[in-house]
Amino acid sequence: MERLKNCLLKKPSKNDLDDGLETAAEYTERWTSVRIIYYTMFLMSLGFSIILTGVWPYLDKLDPHAGKEFLGWIVGANPVGQMIFSPLVGWWGNRLGSIRLPLLCSLGLFSIASGIYACLELFPTDQKYWMLYSRFLIGVSSSSVAVCRSYLSAATKVKERTGAVSMVSLAQTLGFIVGPVLQGAVTMFGEDGLPLVKNKLHLNMYTATGWINVLMGILNFCLFLPFVFKEKRIAALEAMKQQGMQSEKETWKSMKPDYLSAWTLISAFFILVFNFVFLETLATPLTMDMFAWTKAEALYYMAWIMAVGAILASAMFLMIDPLCKRFPEQQVLIWGGFFLMVLGRAVYIPMSDTPPKLALPENATLASLRMEDDVTPYVYGSNFTNVWSNLTRVDFDYSGPIPTAGTETLDGDIDALGCPPSQEWCKTTRGMTISQFLVGYAFTAIGYPIGVTLITTIFSKVLGPRPQGTWMGIMTGSGCLSRALGPVFLSTIYTKYGLYWTFGSTAVMMAATMMWLWQMRERLVPIPYDASCRGEELVSVITKGDQASEEKKTTEDGGDQLNGNSKDSSTPGDS
């Protein structure tokens, strides 16, 4: 236990205490609070992503007539709730001067909403609307993200802030990736699962994710109790001491960030999250349509695919810092982040020689299977069984249609596997290969963590040392908006128009954003500071013309005199 405690508690080095702003105990308490914020950000992302691969088969089981378009609304309900309530929760936290009460309320709501999602079987009617309601409430609870980002800006020194913001991005990204992996891990419970309340409530592969959220939410709630979480706001104290001013506001009031660069990065963040969430939303129905996988197979395979994606993403987080030491951050963002995301979308454009397997009704299946003996049907191979082209899945030694567990529809027919004929494009569009899907997902798993981390990091540097709560709230809002619009818009495009329009539009979207970032690359740089002022956050306002005129008027001795004077007057440009 003591070893675990030492791993969780960050102890200061000698250099960390040289500024005299805090004691060693206060330093440890401050970083403990920051790490609790990391866990909170992870949980908020996990609460959104843990149901993404399972929500479609769960919805289809509860209400077979809900459809994929309603799926888009369910996935989008979470970010809509977060987008609406983030400013209100942020204002509440500012009003109180503390984030503890807003976060305790948010986490309590998170656990209650997750419990509703896990107990949908208890509602006799309108289960899909209760699912929508529970996801909206989880989004409302996730509005605490803006408060967390605001506290992070206040609880870190200037030299620590970029690293802290990067770790938050890592925590959120891992939450998005680990969620579907946990969904896959609980597939061992199956669709029937274990009875909790006889004939009414079960612990199965769908409801288990809700109970995981409940337990993790309760743990997070306990971490914000007063004897664990102690608020330590050091940014204002640091600024006032270094600048010798009465308030932090006076320190950065004269600084003017590059607003065009800031809004460019916010827009790029919107596009990046839009594309990433879309893939997580449609990955399960896409694989079921293209590869004729059952619900259980889709969850199982996607869990493993996303587990490998999590490993790739984690490796990329470790490589970002070394890459940025060899190449400019803007170049790594453009070519390592956005270019790979463009490739990931372009690869998904159909390239198979055959169309996807159509999921025909049972009566059409029986008629098709009664072919003449001299006609050899085309057999589509999968990792479990074989699939007759355009037919319901059957075993290779076919002796009649055999429904598997959980494939009964509401009307008692066998649940046909493959691309549903109700999607007209299934009859005319070429299919996607498994190799395409895996390569595209690999590009996404590599490009997304690079993009989201460097956008946040560069954004922090473009803004300078000022408190970044409001700006981080705007960026969080842009991510919420993309998470709300992405699933609704693109699931509709996918259902009505198919693969070409879906992945073609997203590839063009990513490519256009990449080109704009390339045009703006020279402006995506930190505000220059005066390095001679012991770390004070002062802006260099001297122009190149002034520097040139000074060089003409100053002799070598005069230059030494000027340098000596500049140390006393703290003139920018001497760094």
Q: Mind sketching the topology for me?
A:
Elements: H1 2-8, H2 24-49, H3 55-62, H4 67-96, H5 100-118, H6 127-141, H7 144-154, H8 158-185, E1 194-197, E2 201-203, H9 207-223, H10 235-243, H11 248-252, H12 259-291, H13 295-326, H14 329-347, H15 362-369, E3 379-381, E4 386-388, E5 393-394, H16 434-463, H17 469-497, H18 499-519, H19 544-553, H20 556-569
Could you characterize the architecture of this molecule?
The protein is mostly helical. The chain has helices at residues 2-8, 24-49, 55-62, 67-96, 100-118, 127-141, 144-154, 158-185, 207-223, 235-243, 248-252, 259-291, 295-326, 329-347, 362-369, 434-463, 469-497, 499-519, 544-553, 556-569; strands spanning 194-197, 201-203, 379-381, 386-388, 393-394. Strands 3-4-5 form a three-stranded antiparallel sheet, with no helix packed on it. It has a two-stranded antiparallel ribbon with strand order 1-2. The chain is globular, with a radius of gyration of 27 Å. It starts with a helix and ends in a 6-residue tail after the last helix.
